[in-house]
Amino acid sequence: PVLRLLEAQLQDQRREHEEEMExxxxxxxxxxxxxxxxxxxxxQTLQLSPEVQVEFGLQQEITxxxxxxxxxxxxxxxxxxNEKKLKKQLKIYMKKVQDFxxxxxxxPVERRPHEQxxxxxxxxxxxxxxxxxxxxxxxxxxxxxxxxx
Length: 149
What we know:
mainly alpha
């Protein structure tokens, strides 16, 4: 029973390894094809006149920058959408806090001595840490710039 279990595990591992190897071989083949295409394009570019080479290089750079711009616009849209969602959540939480504070003012004062003690403890704790700041050494120039502005 133990031997069969070990054999089954070994076969599973062998199969997984073979599948990984096949996937890696396919990936290498695709990369080789892409490299050959790039080499052909490079050789063709070398045969062109210097002016055409410069123009070709500029066209490639424009294409690359355009793609990068599109990626950045997409990222910006995602971030703006997330910002709107977070602002909505903040409004909801602010409303809940206001509702909670309003409900607390309706509770008689004699019922809330425990809450007052907790607030005092929290305030005291905040005073212990007042003026301390934790930051990474590499963030120091940014922190100084923000403090100045």
